[in-house]
Amino acid sequence: LEILVTILNENDNSPVFAQPNLIRDVPEDTEVDTAIVAREELRATDADLDTIYYELTTTVQDTDGYFAIRGVNNPEIYLQKALDYDKFNSTTLLLYARDGPVTSPDHTHTATATITIVIKQSDTRAPWFLPCNYLHNDTSVCISSPYSGRVNISEMSTDPLLLEPGPIYAVDPDYTISDRIVYSIVGGNTDEVFVVDADTGNLTMNKIVTSPDSFLLQVMASQVSNIRKYSVATVEIKVINKSDCPPYFEKAVYNGTVFVGLPRRSFVYQAGDPSTPLVIMAMDKDFPDV
């Protein structure tokens, strides 16, 4: 008598990840749809030879939707949405492997792999001239004001020019890269009157100015390792007559009269002459026509 015994496979094994913990560095400028972790690195095995079903979630708030898997049976992780280092610079993903569909009425086993994603800042922004103000509280855009200064006609200063709202200075806003900045004048420098120090940004005179014309310089700040990343700021230099004398008031003491009950912004009148507004005037011998 021959007896044929068939052993039925029971689902008594859990899926197993070869690498249950992975760390991946991802550049900020990675293109959408780029594979982040290959399928071969994430594929789980099951001693019962069951079909594996995968699910990917994130544990960090506000990082949903950036990473996804190719399919329920394909665990390759790819970038689904463009990254922004200013929004977040790391996240943790959980990849679940089940030996049956989530909706299966039968008992299933689950394995979990943890994938830590570290975002590396990329050189995505041009230099910022300081001081600057964020645009609508958006830390990725900072708007600077034009620089301005003055020089005396027919006189050459040997010191760096004093500018408002401060000296010419730019930084690399990709602060983890912080590339070195170099400066150059790219426009408005008629007759090469001015020169800018490539390293410090200090603006100095190269020759005297003999006419009262003003200058509107364009100063470029570019990154040393990536010259395609640059910004241009305007510097208005006004040419004025040299001032040797301080201004002076016509009188040492002014007397005025105000009336009770007048509204705000009403005139103050001259004392003894309630019909004539009080006017305070100053003069300057260097500028008799002003």
UniProtKB/TrEMBL annotation:
UniProt GO BP: adherens junction organization; calcium-dependent cell-cell adhesion via plasma membrane cell adhesion molecules; cell migration; cell morphogenesis; cell-cell adhesion mediated by cadherin; cell-cell junction assembly; homophilic cell adhesion via plasma membrane adhesion molecules
Please, which domain of life does this record's source organism belong to?
A: Eukaryota
Q: Which InterPro entries match?
A: Cadherin, Cadherin-like_dom, Cadherin-like_sf
PROSITE patterns cross-referenced by the UniProt entry: CADHERIN_2
Gene Ontology molecular function: any one: beta-catenin binding
UniProt cross-references to Pfam families, sorted A to Z: Cadherin
Q: What is its main location?
A: membrane
Keyword Calcium assigned to the entry: answer is yes
Q: Which residues cross the membrane?
A: none
Q: GO CC annotation: what is one?
A: adherens junction
SMART domains per record:
CA
Q: Where in the cell is it found?
A: Membrane
| Location of the Cadherin domain | 18-129, 145-249
Keywords on this record? Calcium, Membrane, Repeat
Q: Does the keyword Zinc apply?
A: no
Name it: CDHR5 protein
Question: What organism does this protein naturally occur in?
Answer: Machaerirhynchus nigripectus
High-level lineage = Eukaryota, Metazoa, Chordata, Craniata, Vertebrata
